[in-house]
What does this fold into?
Amino acid sequence: MNQQDIPSNQDASDSQNGMGDIATLHCGGFDLPVSSHMSEESQQILSQLALDQKAAQDKAAQGKNAGKNLSPPAIPSQEEQRETFYKTDAYQRLRTRYPVDIKLETLGGVTVEVITPTAGVSDEHKDRVIINFHGGSFQSGSRISSQQESIPIAALGRIKVISVDYRMYPEHSYPAASEDTVAAYKALLESYPSTHIGMLGTSSGGALCAQTLVQLQKQQLPLPCAVAMIACGAAKREGDSVAIGSSIFEAQVGCNLDMTLGYYEGVDMSDPEVTPANSDQYMAAFPPTFLASSTRDFLLSSVLATHRELLQLDVEAELHVWEGLGHFFHSNIDLPETEELHRQTLEFFKKHFM
It folds into this structure.
């Protein structure tokens, strides 16, 4: 390499200022086989799912012009999503495998699902509770993802789980969700000491956990004994995993991964109340934190960055990453790794309940 091939300091500065992105790697396409490091059962399940999905895509393409649909599909209403989901075989197997009772109640003026094991709450957990914030990009998941996340935890742990049915986009925008989670948590403090409360969230619900912890600090309220953030963290929804995950997502479902969240429209995403990892002060006060993701999760980078930040601030944090699986993989109860995740989450909470 001669002198003229070496980028100058000005070139590097221009790159950082967005004037010349010389550090971007323009990668070509690649084949991504099913990982041999997963359980054999999961390899078989995912291979069959891929065949089923390919057949469905081929059927949908019949009689239409060839080519991928590069626009994300329209999202049905919450009521339509629930009506469809509750009729699926997957939902019936979820309810059969993990027997629970579900009641809709109001907590702090917010609708919640109270999920208790049909076998009863164990004596060990009779005075304990886990509050869950469901995933769904702040625009879906109400009484769907919430149940996929909460039902196994309640049944396996024999513990009460309360899932918050927070307000979502497009009817509502930031900070409606965290206002609701804080209101529900404050009401929960009237019945449980904070040392008997665990906080859990998946995907956008994981980000919501972090935002809620910030609001609790601002209001000088006691924090839960521990928090579990799965498939998202307190850091920005950026990084290598988003770039790599976008290619994987398009290959799987035939449309682009849309990382724009209307819920945050017009919001300064650098604000630590939105992205808590931008504040050492807020992060240093986090309770013991369980973080989980997977190698094909497009939000893995957010989880990794959150774990690193917490360790640098001497906050107890555990990181669990599963090989070969995608975002919110534990929505599939047939994967052995799904129950592994649930049991490890429960073990973490058990270790920190007082």
Observations:
- The two ends are 62 Å apart (CA to CA).
- Residues 78-352 form a domain with the Rossmann fold fold (CATH 3.40.50.1820).
- The first helix runs from residue 9 to 16.
